[in-house]
Amino acid sequence: MKLLSLGAAALSMLCLVVAQDGTGSIPTTTTASSYSCDPTTCKLPTCLCASQSPPNGLAAKDVPQFVTITFDDSVQPSLLATANQLLDVKNPNGCGAKGSWYVSMEYTDFSLVQQWYANGNEVADHTFSHVGSPSSQEIAAAKAMLHEYAGIPQGKIKGFRAPFLNYTAGTLSEISQQGFQYDSSATAVVDDCYWPYTLDNGMANDCWTGICDGAVKLPGIWEIPMYAVNDNASVPQLMDNYLAGSVSDVTEWSNTNFDRHYNGNRQPFGIYVHPTHLTNYPGLPDPSSLRQGVISFIQSLAGKPDVWFVSNDQLLQWMQNPVPASELANQSYMKCELPNTGKEICNGLEKIAISDVGLVSSSLLNTCNFNVASWGTCFNCPSVAPTLATPLPPLSVQSTDPSYRHPVPDNCDSIWWDPVAGQCLCTTASCAYKDVSVTVNTTTAGTTNSSKTATSSGAAQSAATTHENAGAVLLPTLSIGAALMAGAAAVLM
Ligand SMILES: [Zn+2]
Fold first, then answer.
1. Looking at the domain assignment, is residue 235 inside a domain?
2. I need a surface site. Which of 163, 191, 293, 364 has the fewest CB within 10 A?
3. How far is the CA of 164 from the centre of ligand 1 (A)?
4. A Gene Ontology biological process annotation (predicted)?
């Protein structure tokens, strides 16, 4: 219960948060931690000590400068369009930039999640109802729905980010138990700007909260810290940093911080986005200039040698087997061939345009309509709206019905899977897939682990609340203002 002792300091930090989105209260220096790690015994590919230097002794000048652009919260048509605008740059091998999306369930259109995935991006877990210090059921329910309605193979849902970046020792243990590969909720400032590392020896970031006391050691689980940038006043900014100043100011200090990485030890550089803030909504201030500022910054990075825009999933594949930048183009995880399935199937890659935002979908989609939500899916609709307690309600069709959609099996990636015919169109080793993920029981997980989560909460969650803004959560398209206000109020609580 050591973590509960921050008290007043944490509360005063909370007060800073709401003034501005995701900013203002990250400590600029770390505190001493008991973290220790022996690199002679902790070795790749399964173990890596926290270090500011590139892995395996590679020289900084020889390693890629990775840029990770991540998106949080629900996936909706206009938000996906914004994300795709930001990612409209090429990597040195000619393949498009890829991103990671930490998806919460409410207002998410699962057909768009499948599109995002089918185009080579990463889909990760951000809980069912977007709560900090989440229960095991919050984490498991989201993973189950991403699999059931978006067809993401369970084993491809590798990452987790805590809402409000509000994670605890219990959260990290939970994602380990549920078969995730990594967490990306921690903050790295200048003096703990570590490359991603495994938690065999515990946490090495956010040590001011007490999380580095060595109580949590999770062999093989990776932490991908979120890399803060310092603004003009040397205040670390983490998420949505384009909200922290004028476009020209933000661009200037973003470049200064990027150069610190690029000309230094080339730790990954992050751009952490709530796409709601960069998307036009009727009746709200026009964010076009903000959006264009971010896009211009990204495009300027794309013009530099050895800069690669990758998902956190791709980053981790490199971390496990680091190669010089000169060899990155040929790594299988950096390639971008689309599958030739030989027939039009509902896999997220259909080229039939819908709506006015230029997104692709298909006449093959089902639409699931409920009082509170509707979404498209290549799979079966549930008979009632999913809830936290019952994320996978009974289906609306029987398995004997001609309209029944066959779920993705564990030996076929969804990009090759025809859910109408129930057929895997992958016939060669090059597309073979075997899902060996952990199965989590979503009907019972909610109650079994709640005590663990509760007891490990405290300073870590208080601190983290200062990072991920409360505004961009669960926004229905037409009530963003009210949701922003509700989010701010929630933080104050
Ligand atoms: Zn969020």
1. yes
2. 191
3. 6
4. carbohydrate metabolic process
